[in-house]
Amino acid sequence: MVDGADWVAVRPEDFDRLDASRRQVGARAARATRLEHELRQARARLARIEAILAEAGPAGCACERLAAALGDDGPAARGVRSRRRS
Fold it and tell me: What's the average model confidence in pLDDT over 64-85?
């Protein structure tokens, strides 16, 4: 104990390994946070697409609305083609 706090003596090479492990855990946590954000965005986009398709009905073409929901400039941007559902 030093000044009421517990201390641990660590060799420099062990400290370097612990420090590297800490950085790796931090990087993985940041990646997991980013992936969680991307997943939320994808789920929201899917919900918009499902709503558009539900509104279109069997004879409607929702290509332009789908392209807008996907954030594209037009149907060709992601390969969305005009096709009537049967």
Answer: 59
